[in-house]
Amino acid sequence: MTRQAFVHQALCYGSDADFLDGAATFALDGLHADDTVLAVLAPRNIGLLGRALGARSCAVEFVRADDWYGCPSRTLGRYHAYCAEHGTGGVGRPSRVRIIGEPVWPGRTEFETREWMRYESLLNVAFAGTGHWILCPYDTRVLPAVVVRSATRTHPELALGAGESTVSGRYADPADFCAECDVAAPAALPAGHDDIPFGRDRSAHARDALRSYARDLGVPEQRTHDMVAAVHEVMVNSVRHGGGRGVLRLRNDVEYVICEVTDIGTARQIPAPPFPGHLPPDRRAERGHGMWVVRQLSDLLTETFDPRGSIVRLYFKRAATV
C-alpha cells in the first residue's frame, strides 16, 4: 500500500497469528516499496517476525524494545534522529521510514504509564508533515485494559491486519490528550526547611547543593552531571522569565531523584508554548532548544507554567536508563 502522508496506527492483537498478520504484512509491504524498515520489539516478537519474514528479515533492522524504550522523551528523540538519518534517498529526495514500535508497558507506575501514553499521542505532532509510517503493536492478552483503550485515543488509525485499517472513532487531538495528562500530574512538593533559594547570583550555590545531594545518594557521576545540567537550564529559565528568583526542592524515593524548581512568577501573561520541550526543535532556530535538552537529560518531567509562579519537576532514575 502506498500512502504519502504520515501514518500512525495501533495494532491491537490477541494472538501470535494476529501479530504476524499485521506486522509481517507491514514489513513486507515496506520492503517491496524500498522503504527503510525498523522493528523495535520484545525479543519474543523479534523471533516471531524474523522467522515469518525468512530471508527478507536481513533487510529489516531489529532492536530490542527494552534497549530503546527507556524514557519517553529520549525515545522520541531516537526515532526522530533515526528518521532524519534514513529518511533521505540516495539522490536527496525524501524516503519513507516504516517503524514497528512496541512500547514497554509492564512494570510501569501509573505516572510512568500516563507519560508513555502521552508519548504515543505526541508522535502525531512530532512526525506530522513527514511521510513516515509507524505501527504500534498492543498485546491485548497481557496489557491492562486502560493501556489498550488508550491506543484508540492516541492513534488516528487502527490496523486490522493484512494491510487493512480503519479510522479510530475515539482519537483525541494531542493538545487535548496532553491537557488530560497534565491534570493528572502529581501535586507540587510541600515547602521544607532544606529548600534551596536561587536567583541571579545564587545559581552556583544551588548547583553545588544538588551535586552534594546526588553524591550522598550514590548517584553515578555521569548521571549527576546530567542532573545538574538539566536543573541549571530550568533555573536559568526561571531567572529570565519567572521573576528573577525561585526555589529548588530535592527529594528522592526508591527509584527517582526528584528536583522541583519553582519561581515567583511575573505579572506578564506570557502564553506557554505548545508541547514545551516535547518536540525536537529546528536546529537552525536560535531559541527553543532548552526544554528539549532538559527532557533529553531527565527521565520524566512535569511542568506548570503560570504568571503567578511556575513549577517544573524533573525525575532522574537513580540507576541510569537508555
TrEMBL record:
Molecular function per GO: protein serine/threonine kinase activity
Domain MEDS, chain residue ranges per copy: 8-156
Segments forming domain Histidine kinase/HSP90-like ATPase: 204-315
Keywords linked to the UniProt accession: Kinase, Serine/threonine-protein kinase, Transferase
Full protein name: Sensor histidine kinase
Pfam families per UniProt: HATPase_c_2, MEDS
